[in-house]
Specification:
Layout: E1 2-6, E2 9-12, E3 17-24, E4 27-38, E5 45-51, E6 56-58, E7 66-67, E8 76-81, E9 90-100, E10 105-109, E11 113-118
Parallel strand pairs: 2-11
Antiparallel strand pairs: 1-3, 3-8, 4-5, 4-9, 5-6, 7-8, 9-10, 9-11
């Protein structure tokens, strides 16, 4: 299973970015998709996730600013980031877990994409 993330960049505070993560492979089902934010020297923190039943979870720090509309392809996860703040700066990783054909479980991470918010 491969995850391909894109959409990072440099933006001024108050601006917006949209990250995308495409999940590919011999997937039977995706149980959850999510985005995590990592600052240098710190463990990654959950930003937002969406479960198979479409239930969404957001970190308190991003509620009202970030949303995760499901991609049309079903196995694409977008992160719409509005009203960005310098504290949102860091590397963002997408994550997916689910079942591959044959019912084996997968738990995969994409390469990070850098988001930099200038004040």
């Amino acid at each position: 299973v491969q995850l391909q993330a894109s959409g990072g960049g440099l933006v001024q505070a108050g601006g917006s970015l949209r990250l995308s993560c495409a999940v590919s492979g011999n997937i039977e089902s995706v149980l959850s998709l999510g985005w995590y934010h990592q600052l240098p020297g710190r463990q990654g923190e959950l930003v937002a996730t969406i479960a198979e039943d479409e239930r969404k979870t957001y970190a308190d720090s991003v509620k009202g600013r970030f949303t995760i509309p499901r991609g049309n392809a079903g196995n694409t996860l977008n992160l719409q980031m509005n009203s960005l703040e310098p504290a949102d700066t860091g590397v963002y990783y997408c994550h997916a877990d689910g079942l591959i054909l044959g019912a084996s479980h997968f738990d995969s991470w994409g390469k990070g994409t850098q988001v930099t918010v200038s004040s």
